[in-house]
Every structure is written in structure tokens, then in C-alpha cells.
Amino acid sequence: MFEEIIITQKQKLAQTIGINKRFVNLDEILKNSNIDEYYKTYFNAEVNSWIYEEQIRRETNPLFDFKSVQIKLHLDELDDILFQIARFDRPTIRTTIDAAVTTRLNFLIRPRTTLKWFVFRGEPTKAYLEIVKRLSFLKGYDYLIAGFIEYVNENKLIESERDLFSLLEFSNIIEKIDNDFLFSLLPEEFIDLLMPLIRFFNPVQPTVDDKTLFPIESLIIFLDDKGIEPLKNKLEVLLLNQNIKQINGEMFLKQILELLKDIEQNPELYQPSGSNIKTNEDENVNVNDTTIDDDFNSILPPELQELLDDDNENVSELNEDVELNKSYREMMELSNELSSISKALNKMKSQGNKDDFDINENKNRDTE
Fold it and tell me: Is 188 exposed, middle or buried (0-12, 13-18, 19+ CB in 10 A)?
């Protein structure tokens, strides 16, 4: 679906770094002002992962006592030096560029899903220390990454950095952090949340704003990842029935306000029912969800795709832990979604009640 932009971003990054040299020093990358901060963060974390692997090898070597007080200070100094002299050879720099670009797009489009698979890599549990190290690769939705660390510390969920988290526990924490953050946003602030995604699809533009176009399919996937079904359905109608392939923040804000107004006037149409929320578009369009899922899978890095494939083969094992709470969880997800919309409505009412709708509607008509 997004192959062209992925190739363009990879080529641009490779050219900026200069991959024709035998080695590229990490220091060169971090000091290059033309390289996006996301990619600097990714390369920095990659080198730290190499050093961490060296530390693990030391700890598991039974022939030397690396925990000795006499050597610990020297090892810390050695790790600092290793970071300073780290370099990428040609195969490694190419592999890292490929992973950095594809992971970035996946994280921007489907953050919850990408976090789950990028961090756990198909394993059922991960130590807290390893989770934090994997999170350090990512940049774009910092409230999720910082929020996880803050949530763990505030709730005293660990006694040691070696304590384990299950995939399900991690996913639930990320979902709660994300939902709480979304519930706090006004519609206009929700548009601001999309700016990293909009920037990715407009790499040559020095600045982006709510008038900058980006693929509507990326926004559909984004909303699907967050479980915001009514908005996702509205955009699917635009894509499939009206062949609208590009959208901007201004157009999306109009869709949000229309939906909020419709919920206020017709609340009975949006009551939870089973695992779906009924919307006005349901009778007009029948979307095959696997179309978007398949397209999303096509942009995954190979290692993440393999993990998803492995999980699909063994999904029944995970379902054993979830099945008893499935109906309740589905109902809670739908309730959370309606709660989010209700809170947004209440905020808008407190700023001027119905006049806000009229003002925004007039503004959007003028810009159409």
C-alpha cells in the first residue's frame, strides 16, 4: 500500500548517511543535522543493544567474576568507550536503514500493534529491562513510551528490572494509557496527534499543518488500531464509495464534528450491540477488514511479519487466557469508545455548546 513512500524514505536516508563507505560511525549519524531525530534515536538504540548483548555475554561467562567490585567500574568505562567507537559496516547499515524506516511507518500508523510485536518479538514474556530497551528505539508517540514507564513505577509493578511482563499485561497497559490520553483530547487536539504521521507522508515539505494531505488509508488503519470504529467506518465510506484517497486534518476534523453531532442527535444508533457499534454507514458499505490488514502486513519488516505469522499459527494458546473475559472486554472497549466521544462532546459544550458546531461547520464549508 505504501511501498513508494517507504522506498523514497529509505533512499533518502541512505543518501544522507552515505552508505558507500566501508564503515559509518554512529557519531557521524548523531551529529548529522539532516537526519531526522527518529532515525538518530533508532541508530542510537541499535548500538546500545549491541553493548547490552556484550554485557549479557560477560554475565553468562562462568570463567570470570564480572560482578567483582574491582572490575565493575572498568566495565562501565569500557561500555562508554564502545558506544563512542561504534560503527556500522555496509550490510549492517543497510539492514538498519530498512528496519528503521519500516518500523517507523508501522509505529506511526498502528502504534499499539507495532509496540506489541516490536517489543515482544513473538515471545510470551519479556523482562522489564528488555522492554525499556526495545521502547528506546521508537519516537513519535512519546506519551505511550513514557506513559508505560511512568505507569509501572507509579503502580510499583516491579521489584527488579529483571521482572517479567506478559504480552497480554503489556498490551493492556498500553491500551489504558492510550485510551486515557485520547479521552483527554479535544477534536482539534486529536488532529495534532496525527502530525508525525502527516510529516512521514510529506518528507519534502519543510512544514505540515491541518491542510496538508496524506493517504486516507493510513488514517483508517490508525483508527482501527485504536478501536475507534465509527470514525473508521466514516472514512471507509469516503474511500470506497466516494473514491477519496487523500485527506487532511481539516477534512478529518469535519468528519469528527459530524459524527459527534450525529451521536448527540441519534444516540440510539450508537449503542453497543455485541462486538459492533451500529452506524449510519453500515447499510451503505460492506468492508472486508482483511483488505486493510493484508496491506498493513505487506509493509511490515520481514522479522515482524514472521512473528505475526507465527502468532497466527498459535493464536489459540493466547486465546485460552483471554476467552473468559472476551465478552466483557469487548463491551468495555465499546463503552470506552462512547465515553471518549461523550467527553469530547461535553468539552465542546462547555466552550460554547451548539455554537461551536455552527462555527466549525461554517468554517469547513468555506474551506471546501
Answer: middle
What value does the CA radius of gyration of the chain take, rounded to a whole number of Å? 23
How many CA atoms within 13 Å lie on the side-chain side of 331? Answer: 6
Q: Distance of alpha carbon 78 from its chain centroid, rounded?
A: 34
Structural domain harbouring 292 = 189-368
Higher pLDDT, 300 or 136: 136
Angle at 324 between CA 318 and CA 330, to 5 degrees: 90
Inter-residue contact 269 to 262 (CB < 8 Å) = yes
Question: Which grid cell sits at 85?
Answer: 567507537
Q: What is the pLDDT of residues 201-252, one digit of tens each?
A: 998 888 899 999 999 999 999 999 999 999 999 999 999 999 999 999 999 9
- In a 3-state reduction of DSSP, which class is residue 246? strand
Q: What SS3 state is found at 123?
A: coil
Contact 250, 211 (CB under 8 A): yes
DSSP string, 89-121: EHHHHHHHHHHHHHHHHHHHH-HHHHHHHHHHT
CA distance 232 to 227: 9
The predicted structure's pLDDT at residue 336: 53
Q: What is the DSSP string of 11-63?
A: HHHHHHHTTTSSEEEHHHHHH-TTS-HHHHHHHHHHHHHHHHHHHHHHHT-TT
Q: Are residues 117 and 46 in the same domain?
A: no
What is the maximum alpha-carbon separation in the chain? Answer: 75
Beta strands 87-89; 272-273: pairing state: unpaired
C-alpha cell read off for 263: 451521536
| Domains held by the chain: number | 3
Q: Which of 103, 125, 143 corresponds to the end of one domain?
A: 103
Determine which helix (DSSP H) or strand (DSSP E) holds 166, and give its type and residue range: strand 164-166
DSSP letters, 273-335, are: ETTEE--GGGGT----HHHHHHHHHHTS-HHHHHHHHHHHHTHHHHHHHHGGGHHHHHHHHHH
Answer yes or no: do 134 and 201 share one domain: no
Task: State whether 227 and 264 are in the same domain.
Answer: yes
Of 132, 159, 184, the domain-final residue: 184
Q: CA–CA separation, 201 vs 364, rounded Å?
A: 23
